[in-house]
Design goal:
Blueprint (H helix, E strand, L loop, with lengths): L15 H27 L1 H30 L1 H6 L1 H4 L10 H18 L11 H21 L6 H5 L3 H7 L7 E2 L29 H21 L11 H28 L3 H26 L20 H21 L8 E2 L5
Parallel strand pairs: 1-2
Helix pairs in contact: 1-2, 1-6, 2-11, 5-9, 9-10, 9-11, 10-11, 11-12
Length: about 350
Amino acid sequence: MSVHVTPFKSGGALSPRSIRQWRLAQGLVWVVGFTIFACLVFLPDLGILLFWNILIPIAPALIVLAVGLWRNICPLASTALLPRHLGISRQKKMSIETQGILILLSVLLLYIIVPLRHPVFNVSGHATAWLLAGTTVVAVTLGFFFEWKSAWCSTLCPVHPVERLYGTKVIGALPNAHCTACEKCVVPCPDSTPNLDPRGSQKTAPHRLAGLLITGGLPGFIWGWFHEADGTPVVSFLSWAGIYYMPLLGMLITLALYALLTTRFRGKQERMVTAVFATAAVSCYYWYRIPSLLGFGKFPDDGCLIDMRDYLNATTVSGISIGLTLFFFWWLVIRKPNKASWVIRPEYA
């Protein structure tokens, strides 16, 4: 299905036709999301396959290329913003200090939740369903109290720090399919600020710490995560701590390297360092994820979508990973910024 993109300048309004098409797209994606949730509850093995081995592997590439599209159609975002669309949100303004705390908390939640995939969420559809249900309740509750995307989509959502890191260079700005008017609920607005990176919003100490942790720590964290196996028994404190050992070790190594480099480089050079680390993060993910999807992973049974070991060889699979790494390096490092935001800011209220 094609989504009609109305050509208009910043401050313009969506046409009725465009609104209908975006609402249709949001509705269809929401149905897909609910179907996956139902599978996690009633057909857990199928739900795990659909969620962790199809939806999640697609998400990083989509965020790199067109994070605005994802922000427009994300089913959790559509649910969280439902109180605002229905006119029942209290529309409270959130302070800059609170925003910074929630953004930092979102980074910490990302680093806490992802290692739990190995012993819990990757092997239990019901646990994953509870995770999604819990985040939905939190997102909707915050949406009932606070203005537009300020409390979830642009602060507490654990995916949002990754959006900021990956979505520094997008294909182009899309119409804003949620906000009917800009209430300045988040400053700067991540959706309508061109080429915004995680360290481009350093209003408070939590903002700065969050930007440092996600930019410098994510490449090593991803590397370490792929060196742990699914289904590891966790029956003691040491075994629980063990699932965090490799991800946190990798995170600390790349975080220290990033901190060292940013003390030596400023301005354009610092932005280049940030772009290189963003590239390292997404490239590292697909370097390991593509082989595992095809049965060539370090742990062949973990995260396998379709076993292609009888049809492909390791060299071919490595070639795919190398090709994606080169593409991401070109896209995020070499390619010039086009000064495009994720979506086009609507008129100020």
